[in-house]
Write a structure and sequence with these properties.
alpha+beta; Trna Endonuclease, Chain: A, domain 1; two-stranded antiparallel sheet; 24% helix
Protein backbone atom coordinates (compact mmCIF):
# COMPACT_ATOMS: atom_id res chain seq x y z
CA UNK A 1 0.00 0.00 0.00
CA UNK A 2 1.25 3.45 -0.84
CA UNK A 3 0.11 6.37 1.30
CA UNK A 4 0.51 9.97 0.21
CA UNK A 5 -0.08 12.91 2.50
CA UNK A 6 -2.71 15.33 1.27
CA UNK A 7 -2.04 18.93 0.34
CA UNK A 8 -4.30 20.79 2.79
CA UNK A 9 -4.57 23.78 0.45
CA UNK A 10 -6.08 21.57 -2.26
CA UNK A 11 -8.87 20.27 -0.02
CA UNK A 12 -12.41 21.65 -0.31
CA UNK A 13 -14.12 23.23 2.71
CA UNK A 14 -15.75 19.99 3.94
CA UNK A 15 -12.51 18.05 3.53
CA UNK A 16 -10.63 20.72 5.50
CA UNK A 17 -13.19 20.51 8.30
CA UNK A 18 -12.81 16.70 8.43
CA UNK A 19 -9.02 17.00 8.38
CA UNK A 20 -9.06 19.61 11.17
CA UNK A 21 -11.41 17.49 13.28
CA UNK A 22 -9.09 14.50 13.12
CA UNK A 23 -5.97 16.58 13.86
CA UNK A 24 -7.61 18.23 16.89
CA UNK A 25 -9.15 14.94 18.10
CA UNK A 26 -5.75 13.23 17.87
CA UNK A 27 -4.15 16.02 19.91
CA UNK A 28 -6.90 15.83 22.54
CA UNK A 29 -6.40 12.05 22.76
CA UNK A 30 -2.96 12.81 24.20
CA UNK A 31 -4.83 14.36 27.15
CA UNK A 32 -7.21 11.41 27.57
CA UNK A 33 -10.12 12.79 25.56
CA UNK A 34 -12.32 10.75 23.27
CA UNK A 35 -13.80 12.97 20.56
CA UNK A 36 -17.16 12.44 18.90
CA UNK A 37 -18.22 14.33 15.80
CA UNK A 38 -21.70 15.87 15.83
CA UNK A 39 -23.89 16.11 12.75
CA UNK A 40 -25.89 19.15 13.79
CA UNK A 41 -23.67 21.71 15.58
CA UNK A 42 -25.28 20.85 18.93
CA UNK A 43 -25.19 23.92 21.18
CA UNK A 44 -22.73 25.50 18.75
CA UNK A 45 -20.30 22.57 18.85
CA UNK A 46 -18.95 20.63 15.88
CA UNK A 47 -17.84 17.88 18.26
CA UNK A 48 -17.59 16.94 21.90
CA UNK A 49 -14.54 15.59 23.69
CA UNK A 50 -14.94 13.62 26.91
CA UNK A 51 -12.39 12.16 29.30
CA UNK A 52 -14.51 10.67 32.07
CA UNK A 53 -14.43 13.84 34.15
CA UNK A 54 -15.00 16.63 31.66
CA UNK A 55 -16.95 17.19 28.48
CA UNK A 56 -15.73 19.91 26.13
CA UNK A 57 -18.03 21.34 23.47
CA UNK A 58 -15.77 22.40 20.61
CA UNK A 59 -16.37 24.46 17.48
CA UNK A 60 -13.74 24.12 14.74
CA UNK A 61 -12.52 27.26 13.02
CA UNK A 62 -9.79 28.10 10.57
CA UNK A 63 -8.35 30.77 12.87
CA UNK A 64 -8.92 32.71 16.10
CA UNK A 65 -12.58 33.72 15.94
CA UNK A 66 -15.23 35.37 18.09
CA UNK A 67 -18.90 35.32 17.16
CA UNK A 68 -22.00 36.65 18.88
CA UNK A 69 -23.95 33.51 17.96
CA UNK A 70 -21.78 31.59 20.45
CA UNK A 71 -22.35 33.95 23.37
CA UNK A 72 -25.31 31.96 24.70
CA UNK A 73 -23.01 29.09 25.73
CA UNK A 74 -20.23 30.16 28.07
CA UNK A 75 -18.74 26.65 28.02
CA UNK A 76 -18.02 26.52 24.28
CA UNK A 77 -14.43 26.12 23.13
CA UNK A 78 -12.97 27.08 19.77
CA UNK A 79 -10.17 25.01 18.23
CA UNK A 80 -8.04 25.91 15.22
CA UNK A 81 -4.72 25.11 13.65
CA UNK A 82 -2.14 27.87 13.19
CA UNK A 83 1.44 27.37 12.04
CA UNK A 84 1.07 23.59 12.52
CA UNK A 85 0.05 24.13 16.16
CA UNK A 86 -3.35 23.07 17.45
CA UNK A 87 -4.83 25.79 19.61
CA UNK A 88 -7.93 25.80 21.78
CA UNK A 89 -9.57 28.49 23.89
CA UNK A 90 -12.81 29.20 25.70
CA UNK A 91 -14.85 31.45 23.43
CA UNK A 92 -16.20 33.69 26.18
CA UNK A 93 -12.65 34.38 27.40
CA UNK A 94 -11.70 35.63 23.94
CA UNK A 95 -14.78 37.87 23.82
CA UNK A 96 -13.91 39.29 27.24
CA UNK A 97 -10.40 40.16 26.02
CA UNK A 98 -11.58 41.92 22.86
CA UNK A 99 -10.14 45.42 22.55
CA UNK A 100 -12.60 48.28 22.27
CA UNK A 101 -11.42 49.05 18.73
CA UNK A 102 -12.40 45.51 17.69
CA UNK A 103 -15.83 45.84 19.30
CA UNK A 104 -16.37 48.99 17.24
CA UNK A 105 -15.65 47.35 13.88
CA UNK A 106 -18.45 46.80 11.40
CA UNK A 107 -17.62 43.11 11.40
CA UNK A 108 -18.36 42.71 15.13
CA UNK A 109 -20.91 45.46 15.69
CA UNK A 110 -23.11 44.76 12.67
CA UNK A 111 -22.31 41.27 11.42
CA UNK A 112 -21.60 39.74 14.84
CA UNK A 113 -18.23 38.14 14.23
CA UNK A 114 -14.54 38.87 14.04
CA UNK A 115 -11.46 36.79 13.27
CA UNK A 116 -7.72 37.28 13.02
CA UNK A 117 -5.40 35.80 10.42
CA UNK A 118 -2.68 35.55 13.06
CA UNK A 119 -3.28 35.31 16.79
CA UNK A 120 -2.67 38.67 18.51
CA UNK A 121 -0.26 38.53 21.46
CA UNK A 122 -2.87 39.62 24.02
CA UNK A 123 -4.82 36.38 23.40
CA UNK A 124 -1.90 34.05 24.12
CA UNK A 125 -2.75 33.93 27.83
CA UNK A 126 -6.09 32.17 27.19
CA UNK A 127 -4.97 29.82 24.41
CA UNK A 128 -3.82 26.30 25.17
CA UNK A 129 -1.46 24.88 22.55
CA UNK A 130 -1.97 21.12 22.33
Amino acid sequence: MQLNKVNYNKLNAKQKENYNFHKVAAALAEYGYNSMRLNDDWQGADFIAVNGEDMLKIQLKGRLTVDKKYLKDEDLYIAFIEDDSIKIYKHIDAVNLMPEKTKNTESWAQRGGYSWGKTPKHYESIIKVL
